[in-house]
Amino acid sequence: MSAVLPVENPPGIERAYRMRVYPTRVQGRQLAQLVGATRFVWNWALARRSSAYRADGTKLNWIALSREFTQLRAAPDTAWLGDLPREPFNQILRDQERAFAAFFAKRAKYPRFRRRGVPHGIRFTMDQRREQLDRGEEGKRWARVNLPGLGTLKLRRTEELAGRLRSVTLRREGQAWYASITADGVQAQACAPTCAPAARAVLGVDVGLKDLVVRSDGQRVPAPAALRSSLARLRRYQRHYVRQRDAAARRQGLDPAAPFPKGTRIQVSNRMRRTQQRVAALHARIGAVRREALHRATTDIVRCAQVICLEDLAVKAMARGMGRRSFRRSVANAAPGELRRQITYKAQWAGRQISVVDRWYPSSKTCSACGAVNKALTLNQRRWTCAVCGTEHDRDDNAATNIEREGLRLIASPTPMSGGIDARGDLSAVAEAQVIALPQHRRSLKRELVARRCAPHRPKRRSGTGGKGGA
Ligand SMILES: [Zn+2]
Fold first, then answer.
1. Ligand 1 midpoint to CA 208 (Å)
2. Are 19 and 156 in contact (CB under 8 A)?
3. Model confidence, pTM
4. 446 C-alpha vs ligand 1 centroid, how far in Å?
5. How far is the CA of 366 from the centre of ligand 1 (A)?
6. Which tens digits make up the pLDDT trace of 451-469?
7. d(CA 329, CA 99)
8. Contact at 8 Å (CB) between 123 and 91?
9. Is 2 domain-assigned?
10. Ligand 1 geometric centre to CA of 387 (Å)
11. 248 and 262 in one domain?
């Protein structure tokens, strides 16, 4: 879908802060307990819903379940639930309500039971009537949040906490705990990477496979080297774990090559647990490295240009299909969805404009010099020569240039080719009429439009939904 997102500078925006949590030993134990207990309650509620529906078609909602949960907390067998703070359980029941709403609306599959060891967050909402959070001051190392049942948790303060704080989600990554704090009513200036005018009017961004991003100004951001070595180490640890697990299965008299009978629990030895912890810690590290690289790349992109052109990728389809594992992994490394998300919100903070190019636009196959489409181009062809004009192309550079051009064309004429700019169309008139979305850049955009004689591409699909332009 092609769309030009309008520039928006709302008085307050919503955002999340992520900070490392340093729980005390006691708090660490309580948090681990809460993770297990919320998983237990999710599964209990899911079983209650399913059995009530099977019995007489009753659809239990979260209010009914919340009432039952109060009884469950008082029951002798499950009295341990009563020792834990109530709030995360309310949140988990609501999460399940949402999951069911999505299921009934056919947006999602039937909610599933949660397995042990699959990490999920524990959420607390902030009570607006009392001051639960000590935001810390400029230059201070810590912020503190007071949560029911847990007491005061220390947060490593990495930036100013602005706006009205709504909720705190605590999540374990490896051995470390992180808090994700949502806030609304945050002033854009408080979080914009920069509000200075951009150096460039337009920039095309292609999500590379070998590189994280390839930009139309010739810059490339390679995937961080730390990622590759960590991934190699991860494979080693995982193999190690599988060997340990197979040995444990053999000790229990099972054949590790055959699927285990349902309900089998493999005894986890201390050594296995240590390997598990290593794997989790490495996953956390890989995530941190990747996130860091993405944030640097996206902040840089948003600083650099006033209009940012991106490709609308069918991210999921790309990660799922397309065969080879190394290819899937490189797609996951590039994290196109996350890249797009970061660019979008940072652009909004900084008052930049985003132009999303239709996913059917052949950005890789089109020659950026003459506009001919090379239909024979395959996925692993990194370089190619245009059969029409003879220009040699680097696959990714060429795609980035095309994305920039097509994105710019969409801004100039949001409806797909409705008498807009054609290869030989009257550019100046269109530019005059349409490029009003960006007063501060009108002139430079127009210059670029004219200089480039614009887009040779004519989209195949002329669907009515294809070109919702909001400019
Ligand atoms: Zn050509």
1. 22
2. yes
3. 0.63
4. 24
5. 8
6. 544 433 344 444 444 333 3
7. 28
8. yes
9. no
10. 7
11. yes
